[in-house]
Amino acid sequence: xNISLKILDNLRESYGIFISDKLQINSxxxxxxxxxxxxxxxxxxxxxxxxxxxxxxxxxxxAQHVVESHKSARQVLREFLSHVRICSFEFIxxxxxxxxxxxxxxxxxxxxxxxxxxxxxxxxxxxxIPKQLWNPFMLDVKExxxxxxxxxxxSKCLKQKIKISTGFxxxxxxxxxxEILNWCxxxxxxxxxxxxxxxxxxxxxxxxxxxxSANFCLCPAIDLxxxxxxxxxxxxxNENKTAFQVFSRKKILQGQELFVNYGTxxxxxxxxxxxGFVLPSDDFQxxxxxxxxxxxxxxxxxxxxxxxxxxxxxxxxxLESSDYFITSLKVSADLRRxxxxxxxxLEKEENKIIYQILLERFKKNKNxxxxxxxxxxxxxxxxxxxxxxxxxxxxxxxxxxxxxxSDLSRNS
Length: 412
Ligand SMILES: C[S@@+](CC[C@H](N)C(=O)[O-])C[C@H]1O[C@@H](n2cnc3c(N)ncnc32)[C@H](O)[C@@H]1O
Prior knowledge:
Shape: globular
Low-confidence stretches: 82-98, 195-215, 296-303, 313-350, 365-412
Distance between the termini: 60 Å
Number of strands: 11
Bound molecules: S-adenosylmethionine
């Protein structure tokens, strides 16, 4: 049996989840996702839990049981509950070993369940999750500082937040494997339903939430569906059946991927902070590209260089269209100066990214030029100091973005 079928089958079997036979797991543009293997009509019910509905959900309540079943956990928890209801972030950091909210409980429960390996009820679920997960909270401080405030601050908060689970598990006597704990935190951030761990900046978040609701939970199978703006499915919490269900919003053709919306109110920044990716759109692409750059290069010089590049890009945003020409010249001159200083350390791929970032900026400024091709030519001109048309004519459209620093320094 192929792996994808096995994952769904195991989930069905372990948690009594009903999953339509029309679904299968494949690799698509967003990594692994759920695809249709036959036509799905509008409003078809695709995933629902009929038999033991709530059994398949790892809720905060169940996470609490997992945590509390550990010897000494009760005492550690009780200690905190006896004297704190709401507390400041600083307090939590000082007393983190005893303060757990829904997110922390889930993180700790996952960590403990991983220790149990095959004996864990959640083993099938945990095995269905990719081994490698990435979220911005994993960036180190230097890297985080490369991000703009909107990205940086939530990530920094989340980075602090994980210290709470770390402290608690340490208090239980565990030696923490940071990689595994980061994985657990990533799972909760990117795969939990209904909660709002992202609001960790607010004080209210630290109200103890050891509740019995099922609306903040991890949900096997449904969490395999990727996000797209133009989503074709939606999930609903069925109060009567106390079950999560997935319905198609429109007809889905055979072979098409299923998409949901992870929360209509989520901003691009929240998506980035929680799920570790951005939808290819607008300004946010810049942050994303910066991450890609960061992943491929890593030394101070390069980061300084890129940071100053991005600063220039951001500065451009504030300029009026009349400044366009001057700005582009300035950027061009600065780029060349920087290129000379830094030398040829950057690879072509990174130049391409910088070029694309700038190009997006140029394109976005509609007042400047409604003709995108011409805006693009302008970027090439500014970058290469040569006639864009020559470049395009002789090398074709694809080579336009392959700018090398040898080009830049030659023209400086
Ligand atoms: C709830 S899981 C979805 C299933 C996941 N792709 C998997 O293999 O298990 C959320 C994660 O899927 C990925 N993802 C979902 N939608 C995406 C998209 N539109 N583009 C890129 N990655 C996406 C991100 O890594 C995100 O953190």
